[in-house]
Structure formats: C-alpha cells, structure tokens
Amino acid sequence: MHRLFTIAAMAVTIALSLVLGAAAHAATEKAVLAGGCFWCVEADFEKVPGVKSVVSGFTGGSLNNPTYDDVTEGGTGHYEAVEIRFDPAKISYDQVLRLFLRSVDPLDAGGQFCDRGDSYRTAIFVSNKAQKVSAETALAEAEAQLGQSIATPILSAGEFWPADEYHQDYYKSSDIVLTRAGPKQKRNAYKFYRDACGRDARVKAVWGSDAAFAK
C-alpha cells in the first residue's frame, strides 16, 4: 500500500510540474528585433524588468545555421538580431517596441552607428497580426515624435538562428580577448567598443530625454 501511495504521489507531482511548466511557457511572449550590434541590444534588454531572456542570433536571411563570419561577410540576407522572451504581465509587447525604437537610430537605413552594412540594419520581425499592428503603431508614433521618416522595416518572422556561445552575454564575460586597444576582458572590450562606436551618444542625439538605456 505504501509503495502504491508513493507511486501515486510521484504521478501527481509530475503532472503538477507539467501543468506549471505549461502555464509558465504560456505566460511568456517573444519579440525578435534587429538593432545593430546584438551584444548591445542583449545588454540593454537583459536589464528590463519582465524580460526573462535575451538571445543573440541571426534572422531574415536564406542561409541555414549561419555563422557570424557568414553574416558579416554579406550576401546571406541575415540581420544581427535578438530573441527577447518576456512576461506580458510585467511588460507588454508595445512597451518592448517603444524601448527598442528609443535605443537605436531608426532614421539610419545603412546600419547602426559605426557598424555599417545590411546585417547591422534595424528591423522588427513580427510573427502574427497583433504584433504587426503593434509594430505599425510604434513606428507611426516614433515618426510623429521625430518628425522624420523611419527607416526601420516591419518584416515577417522566420527562423531565428542563435549565434554561438562566444557571443551570448558577451558584455558580462571576464574572458580575455584581443582588441585594437590591446588585451581586455570581454566586458571591458564591450564597453570600449560601445563607447567608441558612439551608440549612446547618437541615441541621445536622436531621442533626447526619451533615449532608452543611453548613459
């Protein structure tokens, strides 16, 4: 009898775990955004309350499982992008888009900041009609606020390919890498790159006091 009770208890525990896991998954939504260097977008959005995870990767192109070298060499059609998973009870998709647009230069059609070329362009990748409507509204609001045409397109979401581990959480790592300024820890190399690239300065120039994340 004791053994049967134990088995039944285990079955209930497993069932409850599956139910809770499914509920947690259902409570998570996803945004796929391209904002230039994915290190920077990842670093920005991982600080946002309600965001559960941010993964750097590639999307929008034709090559399966592209590498960083494939994309930066050009011709793949891929953008550097991030996949943001968030809790809609804490932050909405509309709020994610608002933060995103105010953390980039949406007036620039040729890349972002010092990073030039197709893979560094901005874009919002939508997976359903509701996301498309939200994106259209967000772009219209941004255009009205800036009084200029927005270069950021709305594109249909396709396969998202995570970049290799080297690029994930780059801004946190203490690994040593070689930079133009000599050997540096990754997190220091990231800060050096971000400052030298002029990302925050340009975002503040475009958005003023509405600039998101810019220090």
Describe the structure in your own words:
This protein is an alpha+beta fold and 215 residues long. Helix content is 40%, strand content 21%. The strands form 3 sheets. It has a 6-stranded mixed sheet, covered by helices on one side. The chain has a two-stranded antiparallel ribbon with strand order 4-5. It has a two-stranded antiparallel sheet with strand order 9-10. The protein has a domain at 26-170: 2-Layer Sandwich (Peptide Methionine Sulfoxide Reductase, Chain A), CATH 3.30.1060.10.
The CATH H-level homologous superfamily of the domain at 26-170: Peptide methionine sulphoxide reductase MsrA
CATH class descriptor name of the domain at 26-170: Alpha Beta
Spatial sequence of strands, sheet with the most strands: 7-6-1-3-2-8
Low confidence ranges? none
Instruction: Tell me the CATH architecture of the domain at 26-170.
Output: 2-Layer Sandwich
The average pLDDT value, as a whole number, equals 91
> DSSP helix count?
7
CATH topology of the domain at 26-170: Peptide Methionine Sulfoxide Reductase, Chain A
Instruction: Give the termini distance in whole angstroms.
Output: 65 Å
Gross morphology? globular
- Written as H for each helix and E for each strand, in order along the chain, the element string is HEHEHEHEEEHEEEEHH
> How many individual β-strands?
10
What level of helicity do the residues show?
A: 40-55%
